[in-house]
Amino acid sequence: MDNQDSTKRASYDFYLILATAVVLAIISAICIYGMFYFQQAQIQDMHPLVKARYMNTMNLVISPFTICLILLIGICVPKRFLPMKMLNWFTLALLVLLGVITYFYGIIMALKINLMLGMVLQFFVLCLAVIGNKHLHFEKKGYWVRVGSSAIHLGIILFILDLFYYKHQTLHLVLFWVTTVATTVGMLCCFYSEAFANLIKKRRWGKSLCLTAQEKR
Amino acid sequence: MDFTELTHHFTLYGNFLIYGLSFIALLAGLLGGANFFSAAPVGQKYCRYTLYGANILFLLGLGLISWMHYHIYVELPLILPDSLSTWLNQQLSAMNAQADYTLPLYDTNSPPRYAIPVWIENEKYFFWFMSYSIMAQVTYNRLKNHRIQGALLLLLTIQIGIMAVFANPFQNPLPKFFAEISPWFQGGLQPMEQLGLFMKLYPKMIFYYNASYMWMHPPMLFFSYAAITMTFVTSSFMLVNRELEVEILGYDCAKFGYFMLTLGMLLGYPWALKAWGPNWWWDPKICSSIMMWAIYSTYLHTRLYANKKSMWYFTSILGILCFLAMVFTFVSSFFFPGEHTFQ
Question: What is the least distance, in Å, from the CA of B294 to any CA of chain A?
Fold first, then answer.
């Protein structure tokens, strides 16, 4: 059963990554379109109102894919700690909840709530990774890789959340710096996990040597 | 004030360095080509010396650029007469009360000075290619594959060639900067003209030249560009041969490059809000940078499955695509208008 579950999870992870890659590719294509349109229409020489209209149009074009990306983040976060069956139910419940919020309060509110939920869950995952919980599901093994990956994803969620609040200077700067620290620490832990592990091992080894010397005395 | 006195020695010594680097580029091209095309390694010891030579000259050049920037800091303060500075501070205080990001008041005891980082205008190519040269040295010592070593040397030749021919930072140092400040130092301005020019130069000094983000955002991106070039080399070789050692090296470079790119882009965000306000979103350079970051993220994610044959090749293609996106992103600054344009 466990094997079956892990095989299903692996393919689920794989498809989530593929879906993320597809959405990112579409966003890239829209970006290229935006560049050429900007040049053709000479947006930089236009009245600020025309420039604002261009920005709004581009935001509108990219919004379905940004929504997809934010939804994917919402779905990706709980996969770390929920079993497969519950994960499907969670995804369904999340989509229904966001649909209801969109209906009553608008899409922006739904996205913000999705991001805040993602942030809380990702923070929970990070805490579990820090205390070394064995039941977390990651593609890669290793304590520091898991801590790092959790911190990076928390940083990305916070960054997208920050985009909603750039007009509130203090909140924006707080969110921005938390994002930057989380992402930086995350990347360091994740990419240089072996160096971290060796550093900790050396420290422990040094401490145990000191203790042995003290005991001998 | 005539800037020739300031730049004369800089240009003289700098051009010697460029001649030296050009000679090294020639050697690197010959040795690189020989290693890339032959079945057996050629002149390995000399290849290593060539790389050491390039790095020593690059570091000397960086020292020379820093020396000139130090002189700019010391010798070119924006000094206003006392009578104007009081009036100016009243205006600045009124402006600051309404602005999100404020300008420091003018201090007569310590007039504003230009603390310019060593990667503006043509100097950015120097810094970028120096980063590449140092990374090529580290990679060279780590790998045994002489064809990859040859490719690294060939790319170094191309980069130094581009710099020597099109973007020599020593020949005509900081042309835009000196053009901007020359009316100020030529003198003969009426008080109101002087004040008007000060209000043109001062915000740019604070939000651009002296900005703390200026010291972090561009160099991180240049480090990442150098690392992406390394990943391009390894990814191209991965398409031909399935060598695990090459893949691991490519991944190590990609990790470093992604770290620098992400952090560099992140640090550009609050800077852009501060310097330009919110109207920079959908700027062509931002669009292409997001595209590059998206491809790079995809590369790192698909790399987790590189043990599958199809994903190995897909990852390699993404590594190459990432490099092409980087070139496109950089070149776009010349052809697409916007806040980042070099036009």
Answer: 6
Q: Is A179 exposed, middle or buried (0-12, 13-18, 19+ CB in 10 A)?
A: buried
Out of A17, A24, A187, name the one closest to residue B259 (CB).
A187
For A17-67, the pLDDT digits (tens) are: 788 888 888 888 888 888 888 778 777 777 777 877 887 788 778 878 887
Task: Compute, in degrees rounded to 10, the torsion defined by CA atoms B251, B257, B259, B264.
Answer: -170
Which of B115, B303, B142, B150 shows the shortest CA–CA distance to B237?
A: B150
Q: How far, in Å, CA of A194 to CA of B238, rounded?
A: 24
* Nearest by CB: A35 against B256, B266, B284: B284
Chain B residue numbers touching A188 (CB-CB < 8 A): 259
Query: Taking Cα atoms as reference points, which of B214, B224, B313 lies closest to residue B262?
Result: B224
Please check the confidence at residue A113 and state whether its pLDDT lies above 50. yes
Instruction: Please give the ipTM for the structure prediction.
Output: 0.73
Q: Which of B255, B279, B288 sits opposite A35 (nearest CB)?
A: B288
Asked if B290 and A173 come within 8 Å (Cβ–Cβ), the reply is: no
Q: Which two tokens stand for residue A7?
A: 């095989």
Lowest average pLDDT, out of B34-48, B117-131, B273-287, goes to B273-287
**Whether B32 contacts B154, CB under 8 Å:** yes
Non-local (6+) Cβ contacts of B122 within 8 A are B167, B168, B169
Q: Are B282 and A27 an interchain contact pair (Cβ–Cβ within 8 Å)?
A: no
Q: Tell me which of B253, B291, B308, B339 to substitute to probe the interface with A (most A C-beta atoms closer than 10 Å).
A: B291
Interatomic CA distance for residues A109 and A34, integer angstroms: 26
Structure tokens at B117: 């980082």
Chain B CB within 8 Å of residue A21 CB: yes
In a 3-state reduction of DSSP, which class is residue B117? coil
Residue with tokens 């009245």: A47
Q: Measured between alpha carbons, how far is A208 from A186 in angstroms, rounded to an integer? A: 29
Inter-residue contact A179 to A166 (CB < 8 Å): no
- Residue the block writes with tokens 């070099």: B342
What are the structural domain ranges in chain B? 213-243+251-343
Helix (H) or strand (E) run with residue B157 in it: helix B146-166
Structure tokens at A61: 């074009």
What span, in angstroms and rounded, lies between the C-alpha atoms of B251 and B301?
11
**With an 8 Å Cβ cutoff, is A37 touching chain B?**
no
